[in-house]
Write a structure and sequence with these properties.
single chain, mainly alpha, Protein Binding, DinI Protein, Chain A, two-stranded parallel ribbon, 4 strands, 7% strand
Length: 199
């Protein structure tokens, strides 16, 4: 009987410690989208990515248009060609079509890679700011707002994180900043680095 009483006392003591620990843990949340929407570097990042994507799409469109011209020319003269010549031309067009499809796939991969390169430092800065705000305000856990069903306004640290990020935002000159994937040529104009040279 004595052992049972001791076990029961220890169990109740454990429950009490758990309750105390739960009360001392401070939990907050952050709306990362709301934070990022207020950062000037995020707007600049989207502009850079858009410019990079535009260069890729323009390049692919030109090649696709050139390919369509070749196909149209073949269709006009196919009936007058000898069988061997026609088969050779069809193989050539098929190979060019496959090359074009490969370039489209590679362009999409390049855009995704560039997106990661541009946004990864920003995401790291936001995470560091969240960690700092949590430490400064005694939060044990910080959760993402989108996973919560109920969130008291007093535990929202989004504004604190935004202020910290804005206070340390990199200073950039929008008039001199070159879009991603661009270089300056000898005339001083911005030319996309990935634009192929005209043959």
């Amino acid at each position: 009987m004595k052992n049972k009483l001791i076990a029961a006392a220890l169990f109740l003591f454990g429950l009490g410690c758990t309750a105390v620990n739960a009360q001392t843990q401070k939990i907050g949340y952050v709306d990362s989208r709301a934070v990022s929407d207020k950062l000037p570097e995020v707007k600049q990042a989207y502009a850079q990515l858009g410019e990079f994507q535009k260069v890729k799409e323009n390049d692919l469109r030109k090649e696709a248009e050139a390919f369509q011209v070749q196909v149209a020319d073949y269709q006009k003269t196919a009936e007058t060609m000898e069988a061997a010549m026609r088969a050779s031309k069809e193989r050539e067009l098929q190979a060019k079509e496959e090359q074009l499809q490969l370039k489209q796939t590679n362009a999409q991969a390049d855009i995704q890679k560039r997106q990661q390169q541009i946004f990864e430092p920003i995401e790291k800065r936001i995470q560091e700011a969240i960690t700092q705000v949590a430490a400064e305000n005694g939060y044990t856990y910080i959760l993402a707002r989108e996973v919560l069903l109920h969130f008291p306004a007093g535990d929202d640290i989004s504004e604190l994180v935004t202020k910290k990020l804005l206070a340390s935002s990199p200073k950039t000159d929008a008039t001199t900043q070159k879009p991603a994937g661009s270089t300056t040529n000898q005339t001083g104009s911005n030319t996309p680095a990935n634009t192929p040279k005209k043959k």
